[in-house]
Amino acid sequence: MTHAASPRERARPITARNPEDRILARLHDELRDPALDRFFPRQARLRLHDDRLDVTVPTGYLAEVISQKFGATLQRAAEAESGSRDRAGRVQLSFRVDKSAFVDSSAADAANDGVRPARAPAATRATPRRLRLDDFVIGASNEIAFAAASRAADLSAPMPGPLFIHGPCGLGKTHLLQGIEDACRRKHPSAKVVYTTAEAFTNEFVAACRANRVDGFRRAYRAAAVLCIDDVHFLSSKDATQGELLHTFDALGQFGGRLVLASDEHPRRVRSFSAALVSRFMSGAVVELRSPDAALRARLVESLARRRGLTLGEGAVAAISSANASGSVRDLEGALARVEAAYRLAGGLGAIGALLARRALEPASPDAPRPVRPERIITRVCEVLRVADAELRGTGRHPRVVLARGLIVHLCRALTTLSFPEIARAMGRPNHSSVVTSGKRLAALLEQPESPLPELAGLEPIAGLSLAGLRDHLRRDLASGGTARPNREAPEASHASTGDGIGRVTPAPPTLNGSSPARSPAST
Fold first, then answer.
1. What number of other Cβ atoms are within 10 A of residue 227's Cβ?
2. Residue 113, Cβ neighbours under 10 Å: how many?
3. Which of 154, 162, 370, 451 is at 20 to 30 A from 445, Cα to Cα?
4. In sequence order, what are the residues at sequence separation of 6 or more whose Cβ sits closer than 8 angstroms to the Cβ of residue 472?
5. How confident is the model over 455-506, as pLDDT tens digits?
6. In this structure, are residues 45 and 14 in contact, taking their beta carbons and an 8 Å threshold?
7. pTM of this prediction?
């Protein structure tokens, strides 16, 4: 009969006084593997019974890992120490899963380290809606990424390096990562699987540093069988968190854990990624999600319609799938939502036909403007507010620059179909959270009565306009291709820019009719 080691036995230092300690000493002498200290005795304990060596572990996954890494050496060491053998002259190796045998030791380790026992990362509870690989719609543009994700979810299949999935927003990166988590939990219920975002990983790391609980944070992530991190481009320029992720990557490799990452950009194109991280990401499979073709867009629309309980005619599928050539699932969901609203308004009977779908998706008027390129919006706003490209993309907080950023975000949301991460990339921002903040700040200012421009920008009024007036003129100007004119021309006056460390005299603000005077060398 097997039994768990007592707390006194678990606390006993490794010596040559008992066969279990001598077996471990033989393992160290033969393998000289630093990972042994990570497994024994914290996550695996030995007990020799005549012709059988019992290995007690908290999870079945750890039993698989230890058996694969150390099984043969353990058996040889046990045979050297045991005086009894079975009929074949061997000592049998037996694994026993008992999570309760490790509860007190983990609490004691935490107390010794001055931290609380590690809990599962909060990020694993932050996304209640889990997506499944079975629901992923496969086509030529994503079949390689899907195959790689399916292999990562199968812990019995080898995976020599990390899996890095990259591609534009809305093409299924999050679906694949959450699908891996779901598949692992169903196929390997005893394995520890963690899904989180790079932002949540960063926030937890910062909180752990401030609360002196870094060891607990590391145990929560580094002991994972599979660690999935979404939006890893968020770590751009975050040197301390990148360093922590680097060590997490190395620890997972020692324990046989798997790392799956998703990003909007290829690892070599993410700005301010450390060379060490990029090198490790490139050591595994780097796969791209591309924009889907027409056939895949049609299957996506059909799949989304089934989830909503809608029946689409063939013409309706073609109308919805062609409404957004990029094939972003979010954009297709938006188009389908508009069609469903029109369908419900019409009574909601029968299948949705092509005519109803086209009418629901057509612009409000034949003269409705097409989406404006974000580069045009950025250029025009910078011309009007006399903001250089380096100022816009830098970290300066001059009121003129802050205003420019807010207007660009606001106009991009109004005149384009871009998401916040896409707007952030167009503006050269390291992450989209700052872009969201800029948009919200401007929206709050626009709700104020009159929303005066002089107090906000620290400049003389531009053509005597309020903030809302400036916003409206810029919008009309961009939507009309630069033909709209304000009610009055801008004054031919110049003023000095102060407060941003530039200290130069800039030319008069341009008019809002699509033309502008020559820009100074400092602002080009």
1. 26
2. 14
3. 370
4. none
5. 544 555 465 667 788 888 888 888 776 544 444 333 333 333 333 333 333 3
6. no
7. 0.52
